[in-house]
Amino acid sequence: MALDTREASTAENVTSKAEVVGGASVEGTGDVSSLGKLFANELKSIGIPAENSGIRSVTGNSSDAFKFFKKQVIPSTIREVKSGVYVGNDGEGITFTYRSASKSGPPTIDVNGVQGLRKIKFIN
According to the UniProt record, where is the region Disordered (predicted)? Predict the structure, then answer.
């Protein structure tokens, strides 16, 4: 998928979910919490690449991150493994782990099962 260089602030401004992902991928802009379930290739294109490989950065806070997490997983699979840490599966072999804070600071979603993507960090 070619990266879209336009900023997409809402789904109403675009014609497809891929354009929202593309808009969010350029400068970390776009409201990712408004997106629905994304496929593996869409997840790999979200936000902007971070300094380390396999990590993507998007604009948002812990509330945005948790909303996004809940849209990626089957609700009945969500379990809290410790305070502020939730794990869930999407039914397609992908496991998501939401952490309200990470060692580096921002809320993070760990992604297991998508080649080339390890984490999505939500940066204000």
Answer: 1-32
- Give the pLDDT confidence of 48-106 residue by residue, as tens digits: 999 999 999 999 999 999 999 999 999 999 999 999 999 999 999 999 999 998 888 89
Q: Maximum Cα–Cα distance for the chain, whole Å?
A: 40
Strand ordering across the sheet containing 119-123:
48-49, 55-59, 119-123, 108-112, 95-99, 85-89, 79-82
pTM confidence score: 0.74
Q: How do residues 13-34 score in pLDDT, each as one tens digit?
A: 333 333 334 334 333 444 675 7
Return the domain boundaries, the chain: 11-123
CA pair distance 100, 65, nearest whole angstrom = 8
- Non-local CB neighbours of 51 within 8 Å, separated by 6+ positions: none
